[in-house]
Amino acid sequence: MERVEALAYRAELAFTLEDPDRAAAVLDELAGIPLTTEEREYLSEMLANVAELRREG
Length: 57
Prior knowledge:
Elements: H1 2-16, H2 20-31, H3 37-42, H4 44-56
Helix pairs in contact: 1-2, 1-4
């Protein structure tokens, strides 16, 4: 879960720094991480924020 959190922060930073290519790469890496149901529930707000970044990007 720490990796997911770190990648989410990196994606947010890349968008803030106006680096859409890096943001896309980080989001792709994040999407490839398998999560259990419990992990998804715990990270639901963060994952929703990441999904919003992807739509806005």
